[in-house]
Write a sequence for this structure.
């Protein structure tokens, strides 16, 4: 069966939708959707044999909205009030939707927001309910905010256990529920908070985690890009092991797992102090095929003068048998590889500041 590859690119001034065939060489683009609105999150939901696009847009006039499309972006709809709103007894306002993730159950969509809150939708993203167990957690008042704000930027529903969800916030760290959100426990043992004084750098919570990823076939294994450090957990966050040896820098934002190989992951290292751009200003993706034991530089086709960063959600992989890998940068360029990172080409340029990219293959 023929398939179309869909690539969503969320920027600080709208969303672009790219389409290609399975070869992923020639692309057509539509956009901007939601012109001049910040798009920090998006998703391609292919559950149930249908394709639905989701986008978390923030309008300076209307505030945050979760928008949905069933026709690859030709038309969009949203729930009342944008779908994500604090209940009347909570005196806060949602500022941005940082994460949208289809859940393990049909119709379930998870959202992560700024201020730091997690939300669950049971109707495909039309309406969302606040996860009060996390919002009312005793740690919440002590969570800090990174330079980009305080937000839940990682939500990992367990692929087979609907009651288990792992989340991460900057700055607060990793938390997990196993009882459907009634209670949440921190899962940060072994993650270093390098910005804290000596002797206090391994707290129970408070780490500036940048992104966490996992493979659905091996859900107990997690990979984490920290504010200084790349880590692996083999017990779903119960303990973490540093795996950045061999990288040119251990600071970065995204971490991505190969869709068919649980031991293969990708990162995009940048400088942690001074300029937030790749070491030597050379755009490079780094791949490990042994769960972080060793690393290989992927460079063919990438530029050697690249003074910009790739943000936490601006790197992704599609689900083709030969997967495509993508990243978008703060200079408005989006790069793609149709061979899992071996070779690269620029897919589009001169967009606004790229915040998020998401890709999937969909049946024609």
């Amino acid at each position: 069966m023929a398939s179309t590859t869909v690539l969503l690119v969320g920027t600080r001034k709208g969303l672009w939708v790219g389409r290609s065939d399975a070869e992923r060489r020639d692309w057509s683009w539509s956009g901007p959707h939601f012109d001049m609105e910040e798009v920090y999150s998006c998703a391609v939901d292919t559950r149930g044999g249908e394709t639905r696009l989701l986008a978390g847009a923030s309008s300076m006039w209307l505030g945050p909205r979760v928008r949905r499309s069933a026709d690859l972006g030709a038309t969009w709809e949203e729930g009342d009030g944008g779908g994500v709103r604090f209940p009347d007894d909570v005196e806060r306002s949602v500022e941005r939707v940082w994460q949208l993730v289809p859940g393990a159950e049909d119709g379930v969509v998870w959202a992560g927001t700024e201020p730091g809150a997690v939300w669950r939708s049971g109707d495909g993203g039309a309406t969302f309910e606040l996860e009060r167990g996390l919002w009312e957690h005793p740690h919440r008042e002590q969570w800090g905010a990174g330079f980009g704000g305080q937000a839940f930027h990682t939500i990992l529903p367990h692929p087979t256990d609907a009651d288990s969800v792992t989340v991460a916030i900057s700055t607060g760290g990793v938390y997990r529920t196993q009882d459907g959100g009634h209670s949440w426990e921190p899962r940060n043992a072994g993650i270093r908070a390098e910005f804290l004084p000596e002797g206090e750098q391994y707290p129970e919570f408070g780490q500036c985690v940048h992104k966490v990823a996992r493979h659905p076939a091996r859900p107990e294994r997690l990979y984490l890009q920290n504010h200084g450090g790349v880590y692996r957990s083999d017990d779903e966050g119960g303990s973490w092991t540093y795996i950045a040896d061999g990288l040119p820098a251990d600071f970065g934002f995204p971490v991505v797992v190969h869709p068919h190989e649980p031991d293969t992951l990708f990162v995009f290292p940048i400088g942690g102090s001074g300029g937030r751009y790749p070491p030597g200003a050379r755009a490079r993706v780094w791949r490990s095929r042994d769960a972080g034991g060793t690393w290989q530089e992927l460079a063919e086709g990438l530029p050697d003068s690249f003074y910009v960063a790739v943000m936490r959600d601006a790197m992704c992989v599609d689900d083709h048998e030969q997967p495509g890998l993508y990243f978008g940068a703060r200079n408005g360029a989006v790069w793609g590889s149709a061979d899992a990172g071996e070779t690269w080409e620029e897919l589009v340029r001169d967009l606004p500041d790229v915040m998020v990219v998401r890709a999937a293959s969909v049946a024609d």
Summary: The first helix runs from residue 132 to 135. DSSP finds one helix and 28 strands in the chain.
